[in-house]
Amino acid sequence: MPHSFGTRARTRHMFAKKFRQSGPVHLSQYLMHVKVGDYVDIFANPSIHKGMPHKGYHGRTGIVFNVTKSAVGVRVNKLVNGRIIEKRIHVRIEHVRQSKCQKEILARKISNEKAKDEARKTGVKVNLKRTPKLPKAAYYLKAAGDDGEITTIQPLPFSDLV
């Protein structure tokens, strides 16, 4: 039961770098292309104290609404007393990485456009909806014996030994 309520309280593992991942921030992090509307993941880099987000935003995904010289403004949803509020926070670029949450959607969009073009050329109707994984087809399991006959097993009749 801790009694300290600082901004970095209970972040021993959250704000610790992984094994053999310490050292200076890579230049590619500073040269990362970020545009307004991009999805980004907020991951606080513990070696950079300036512009670090609060621990409540660590690991959250948000949408960029502002880009400045050394920081980005991110819209993040936060649960407050049972309701979700959109918070706007500014975080330095070291604490942000490009999100992969839209990757599958964009890939599906591209494949759907290709399928539509093929359908227009050939005149065949194509279904673009996703379908859930269907159950497996029924099959017969081969018996252990070589004869291939189905063996019926009967329970033994009850016998009272008293």
Report on this structure.
It is a single chain. By secondary structure, the protein is an alpha+beta fold. It has helices at 27-30, 103-122; strands spanning 39-42, 61-67, 71-80, 83-92, 96-98. It has a five-stranded antiparallel sheet, with no helix packed on it. Strand 2 and strand 3 form a beta hairpin. The model has no long low-confidence stretch (mean pLDDT 92).
- The helix content is 10-25%
For the termini, the CA-CA separation is 61 Å
Residue-averaged pLDDT, rounded? 92
Number of helices: 2
Main sheet summary = 5 strands, antiparallel
Specify the overall morphology: extended
Q: Output the strand order for the largest sheet.
A: 4-3-2-1-5
Structural class: alpha+beta
Order of helices and strands: HEEEEEH
**Poorly predicted regions:** none
Radius of gyration: 29 Å
Strand portion, in percent? 15-25%
- By DSSP, the count of extended strands is 5
In short:
This protein is α+β, with helices and mostly antiparallel strands and 162 residues long. It has helices at residues 27-30, 103-122; strands spanning 39-42, 61-67, 71-80, 83-92, 96-98. Helices cover 15% and strands 21% of the residues.
